Every structure is written in C-alpha cells, then in structure tokens.
Amino acid sequence: MSDLLTVLQDTADPRPEKLAKILGSTPQEVENELEELRRNKTLLGWMPILNPIQGQSEQVRAVIEVKISPEREGGFDRMALRISKFEEVESCYLMSGGYDLLVFVTGKNLKSVASFISERLATIQGVLSTATHFLLRPYKDHGHLLAEETENQEKPSISP
Q1: 68-121: per-residue pLDDT in tens?
Q2: Which of 20, 33, 44, 49 reaches 20 to 30 Å from 152, CA-CA?
Q3: Is the distance from CB of 3 to CB of 20 less than 8 angstroms?
Q4: Element (H or E) spanning 43, and its range?
C-alpha cells in the first residue's frame, strides 16, 4: 500500500495541500497520485464516518446471512453481484461458514427492510435461506469508538 493510501485511511482528508505536507511532497505530486489511484479504481471515493448515536439517525440497518446455490458457470459471483445491485444493499461479502453471503441492508424503517428481504431478496431463484439480524446500537465503526464508557451511568451498579 502506498504511503498516500495509508495517510488517507488515517486522516480521510482529501486536500492535496494537507496530504503533501504530511507526506513531505508537493500538492501536484499528490494530485497526480490521487488521479492514478482513481483511474485504476484503487480509490473509489470518500466516506465520512458519522456517529449515528449523535445524529439520531432514523434509518434501520440489518445484517443478512444468505445461503445460495452456486451457479454452474458463475459460482457465487453472479448471484452476489445481482444482490449487490439492489439500492437497499449497503455491502455484500462472500464468506465462509454456514452461510455464503453477508449482506448489510439499510432502510427507512423496520417494515421497509423486512419487505425488501421477504419480497425481493428471499424470492430470488437460487437463494436457499436467509437469517436476518437487525443492528440495535453501534459501539465501534471503522476503528472509531462511538460510545463512551461514561454513557448510561444513571443505572445503579448491580452487586452480588
């Protein structure tokens, strides 16, 4: 991994002037490397990390384990790509274990996520089963702690 990519992951600040200062380079050299990383699809975009606890996001997120039947010519790839194209799908991963795919889904409410799963995802030919887990509260995301140890201190300690 290039030094630029390492710095980008740590700072997530896309300004070439700031990146050049950190790297001991010139803004033009950084801009050239950024352009090359975009061109070869190493750098796909910028994503801020927001704390849903602070933002009081009304979105519902779910993790869905999906068991699929691999296709003769496409294996798992064709089915995974088909599922990945749904607007509700945030991320989709091939995984080992009891299920084949791990799918992260976002919706405006519980009903919309449930409808997506039961009406669109589970009905795809080749989907054998799904197991849905709704995310209730985040504690850490992309290496950032989202909750403090001092939160919820109004509850008294339970002693034996």
Answers
A1: 998 888 789 999 999 999 999 999 999 999 999 999 999 999 999 999 999 999
A2: 49
A3: no
A4: none
Residues 6+ apart with CB under 8 A from 155: none
Question: 130 near 98, Cβ under 8 Å?
Answer: no
**Which one, of 34, 54, 20, lies nearest residue 144 by Cα?**
54
Tokens for 147, please give them: 């909750």
> What is the residue type of 149?
E
Nearest-angstrom CA–CA distance, 21 and 89: 37
Q: Are residues 75 and 33 in the same domain?
A: no
Task: For residue 52, give both structure tokens.
Answer: 């849903």
State the CB neighbour count (10 A cutoff) for residue 115. 14
Please classify residue 27 by burial: count the beta carbons closer than 10 Å to its beta carbon, then call 0-12 exposed, 13-18 middle and 19+ buried: middle
Please indicate, yes or no, whether residues 62 and 27 belong to a single structural domain of this protein: no
List the domain range (segments joined by +) for residue 59: 52-137
Q: How many domains does the chain have?
A: 2
Q: Quick check: 56 and 138 in contact, CB under 8 A?
A: no
> Contact at 8 Å (CB) between 103 and 89?
yes
At a CB cut-off of 8 Å and minimum separation 6, what does 91 contact? Answer: 102, 103, 104
Q: What is the pLDDT of residues 12-42, one digit of tens each?
A: 667 888 888 888 999 999 899 889 988 999 8
